[in-house]
């Protein structure tokens, strides 16, 4: 492994550093979504049943004991139940705008890595080839073709490394972005349900 890194030069080390960062970001986001995962349908039905009975303190307790973006919105809506439906909806939307950045955290950085890793690999290949052809030029016509082939093969290592880092990073990036988008849609739907439910529960 160290031999490959040494052959790839400084750019190879940069690509490996980016691969470590990408892995850390992906693992952190996967743990985040796992941590906020709740049995949504069961939770919503439980909250609806509790709210219909007028047990608002119990509903707030349910939200606090099951933290997730959706239950956070529910909590805000319940806390503002005495206001008009329009005010409740605006308050919930404001809370949603605070939840979205939490779900999108680190995704821009991961997206950047997916774009620059293959470009760095290409840059390493170009600079490696320049160096290989430069050596051949100095040796002139008596140069060993095997030396050129060796130089080019080493230069291509960075391209391979860049692709190896970028491909899984792109897969996880798209997966996480879709997860965020689906969560946002679910939050919007749940917010509308909560506004309708609390509309008749004003105190």
Describe this entry's structure for a reader.
- The chain is mostly helical.
- The protein has seven helices and no strands.
- The longest helix has 54 residues, at 145-198.
| Helix-strand pattern | HHHHHHH
The quaternary organization reads as single chain
| First and last CA, distance | 68 Å
Average residue pLDDT: 81
Output the number of helix runs.
Answer: 7
Helix content: over 70%
Low-confidence stretches: none
Q: How many separate domains?
A: 1
The percentage of residues in β strands lies in under 5%
Count every beta strand, where a strand is a DSSP E run of 2 or more residues.
0
Using only C-alpha atoms, the radius of gyration works out to: 27 Å
Query: Which structural class is indicated by helix and strand composition?
Result: mainly alpha
Outline: rod-shaped
The major β-sheet equals: none
């Amino acid at each position: 492994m160290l031999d490959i890194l040494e052959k790839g030069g400084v750019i190879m080390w940069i690509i490996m550093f980016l691969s470590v960062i990408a892995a850390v970001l992906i693992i952190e986001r996967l743990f985040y979504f796992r941590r906020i995962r709740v049995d949504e349908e069961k939770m919503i039905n439980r909250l609806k049943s509790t709210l219909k009975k007028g047990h608002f303190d119990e509903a707030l307790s349910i939200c606090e004991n099951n933290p997730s973006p959706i239950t956070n919105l529910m909590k805000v809506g319940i806390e503002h139940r005495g206001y008009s439906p329009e005010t409740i909806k605006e308050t919930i939307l404001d809370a949603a705008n605070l939840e979205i950045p939490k779900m999108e955290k680190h995704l821009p950085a991961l997206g950047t890595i997916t774009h620059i890793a293959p470009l760095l690999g290409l840059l390493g290949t170009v600079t490696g080839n320049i160096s290989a052809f430069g050596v051949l030029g100095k040796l002139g016509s008596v140069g060993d073709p095997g030396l050129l082939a060796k130089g080019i093969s080493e230069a291509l290592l960075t391209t391979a490394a860049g692709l190896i880092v970028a491909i899984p990073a792109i897969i996880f990036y798209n997966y996480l972005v879709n997860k965020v988008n689906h969560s946002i849609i679910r939050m919007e739907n749940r917010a509308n349900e909560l506004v309708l439910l609390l509309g008749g529960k004003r105190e």
